[in-house]
Amino acid sequence: MFRNRRNSKIRGESKNEGELYALTDLAEGERGIIIRALGGFGLVRRLAEMGLTPGVEVKLLRKGSFGGPVEIEVRSVALALGRGVASRVLVKPVKDEPHD
């Protein structure tokens, strides 16, 4: 009944989305584009008020130990989200392009 959330992949519903990951699955320093948030109206509205809307790039700054909060950077602002809330935000990882 319980599933291991570490390294879990959530398949996109359409082919153009590719594979989606929970925000908590990103590594520290990794960037992703928000695709959607899973939750009720209140949670989605609260995330939108913080600037976490579809199409926005986020960077995972730090993961708290022992299931603590996740620190992210969005729109040049650092935010801390509880691990449960962060696991409901689906992102598509951004591949860093090599600099010449």
Task: Give a quick rundown of the structure.
The protein is mostly beta strands and 100 residues long. The protein has 2 helices and 7 strands.
Biggest β-sheet: strands ordered side by side in the sheet: 1-2-7-3-4-5-6
Tally the helices: what do you get?
Answer: 2
The tally of structural domains comes to: 1
| Sheet of most strands | 7 strands, antiparallel
- What order do the SSEs take from the amino end to the carboxyl end, as H and E? EEEHEEEHE
The secondary structure category is mainly beta
* CATH architecture heading: Roll
- Assembly type of the chains comes to single chain
General shape: globular
Fourth-level CATH superfamily: Ferrous iron transport protein A (FeoA)
Number-wise, the strands total 7
**Gap from first CA to last CA:** 48 Å
Defining key terms:
SH3 type barrels, 7-stranded antiparallel beta sheet, 35% strand
